[in-house]
């Protein structure tokens, strides 16, 4: 899961204010559930959220070149609306929340890039991306996992990730509707199919064995399912949405495979009770599968470490 900046214009800020404030209530409660059910999770955090104040944020952004053709993709576009620090602007700073996550057991801190960097949008380049990761390295020491914003995986950029200590990233599901897309290629038919797939099995469960991960310099810990938030208009379908996820988890447990579930914490910022209740139903099922099949909960770093351990064992026996 990732903590996502996600606000690049004034209209978006107005639209998501409730979600962003609500996430400050939802995140500690998520962490409590994770502790109760012994869940290991990865939190991919946008580096800008680490900045202590606007002065630091401006200094770091001033050193970045973010030449997107669509200038609204750059966070520089809304700096006049950013407050001085977290106590007066809880939308653009999150130092206190990050500390809460850091102290919780079994939680991995990963990166979502510094500036919520879009690796496939027109105008930007690999040199711009590298400069972004320099800031990540300074602010988020020891980070080894990355989630590309908007799932814009750019395989050419993985060599830069490796240079900065990234050993794993979250890739997309193996289906045409989940392939990396830009703002121009995210077609309505793809969005509609992804929504349908959340309730009815269209593309499969996307489980996979750890030894099927390709032994590249940066490991692709592929996604299996996006946990969509509660939607009042679709509440009659909540049972289908839950069963879709539970069946994927069951397949993974029975066949000793990975099921990688992800979402944004601000997705839980509205309808908090409904979303947390739904999450707990998933975690109860994970607990059942742990008791019955020995199913493990692992964060991305732990999956990568397990893959490397198994590979070393195989190599030593050949």
From TrEMBL:
Gene3D superfamilies: Glycoside hydrolase/deacetylase. It comes from the Bacteria. CDD domains: CE4_u5. This is Polysaccharide deacetylase family protein.
């Amino acid at each position: 899961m990732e903590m996502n900046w996600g606000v690049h214009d004034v209209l978006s800020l107005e639209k998501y204010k409730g979600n962003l404030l609500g996430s400050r209530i939802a995140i500690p409660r998520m962490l409590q559930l994770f502790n109760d059910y012994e869940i290991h999770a990865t939190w991919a955090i946008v580096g800008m959220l680490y900045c202590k104040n606007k002065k630091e944020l401006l200094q770091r952004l001033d050193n970045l070149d973010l030449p997107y053709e669509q200038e609204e993709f750059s966070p520089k576009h809304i700096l006049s609306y950013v407050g001085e620090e977290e106590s007066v602007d809880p939308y653009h700073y999150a130092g206190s929340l990050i500390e809460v996550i850091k102290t919780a057991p079994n939680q991995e801190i990963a990166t979502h890039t510094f500036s919520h960097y879009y690796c496939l949008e027109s105008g930007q380049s690999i040199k711009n991306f590298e400069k972004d990761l320099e800031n990540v390295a300074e602010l988020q020491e020891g980070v080894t996992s990355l989630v590309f914003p908007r799932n814009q995986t750019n395989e050419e950029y993985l060599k830069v990730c490796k240079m900065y200590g990234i050993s794993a990233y979250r890739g997309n599901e193996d289906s045409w509707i989940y392939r990396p897309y830009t703002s121009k290629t995210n077609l309505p038919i793809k969005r509609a199919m992804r929504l349908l797939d959340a309730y009815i099995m269209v593309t499969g469960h996307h489980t996979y064995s750890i030894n099927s991960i390709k032994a590249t310099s940066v490991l692709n810990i592929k996604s299996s399912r996006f946990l969509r938030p509660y939607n009042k208009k679709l509440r009659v379908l909540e049972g289908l949405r839950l069963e879709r996820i539970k069946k994927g988890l069951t397949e993974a447990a029975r066949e000793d495979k990975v099921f990688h579930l992800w979402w944004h914490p601000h997705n839980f910022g509205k309808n908090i009770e409904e979303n947390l209740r739904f999450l707990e139903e998933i975690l109860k099922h994970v607990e059942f599968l742990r008791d019955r099949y020995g199913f493990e909960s692992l964060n991305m770093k732990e999956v990568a470490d397990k893959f490397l351990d198994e590979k070393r064992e195989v190599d030593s026996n050949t």
